[in-house]
């Protein structure tokens, strides 16, 4: 009966399924892991959720002023009756705070959470710079 009321239902369904496949399919999708950044007096602590990944599947590197975390969770080939686990490439780049040191970073993986300790250096506070507003 729905086909009589809305004859485009099957076309609409196909378009929606294709869009979902593009967004969540295996082809080129990049996952952004969930994270949090906290600070202490002498360091920052970046915590990133990477369940199912081991140190051999992760890369942590500095690129200029960015800390990059990259990895891949590969799907095992086997017969599945249910599959809700997300597989694929993860990538996230974090802009380092101005007082972060680029030396002495430490990365540790435990129970699916990657922790990156970023040392801080003491810097004198910069006074605000007033920018004149021109009319016109």
UniProtKB/TrEMBL annotation:
Residues 25-136 form the SHSP domain. The keyword Cell membrane does not apply. PROSITE patterns: SHSP. SUPFAM superfamilies: HSP20-like chaperones (SSF49764). GO terms for biological process: response to heat. Keywords: Stress response. InterPro entries: A-crystallin/Hsp20_dom (IPR002068), HSP20-like_chaperone (IPR008978), HSP21-like (IPR044587). It holds the Pfam family HSP20. Belongs to the small heat shock protein (HSP20) family. This is Molecular chaperone (Small heat shock protein). It comes from Thermus oshimai JL-2.
């Amino acid at each position: 009966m729905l086909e009589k009321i809305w004859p485009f239902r099957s076309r609409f369904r196909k378009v929606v399924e294709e869009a979902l496949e593009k967004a969540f399919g295996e082809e080129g999708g990049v996952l952004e892991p969930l994270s949090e950044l906290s600070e202490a007096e002498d360091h920052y602590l970046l915590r990133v959720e990477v369940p199912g990944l081991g140190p051999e599947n992760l890369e942590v590197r500095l690129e200029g002023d960015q800390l990059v975390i990259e990895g891949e969770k590969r799907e095992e080939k086997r017969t599945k009756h249910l599959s809700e686990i997300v597989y694929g490439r993860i990538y996230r780049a974090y802009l380092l705070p101005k007082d972060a040191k680029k030396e002495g970073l430490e990365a540790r993986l435990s129970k699916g959470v990657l922790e990156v300790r970023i040392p801080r250096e003491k810097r004198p506070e910069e006074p605000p710079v007033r920018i004149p507003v021109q009319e016109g």
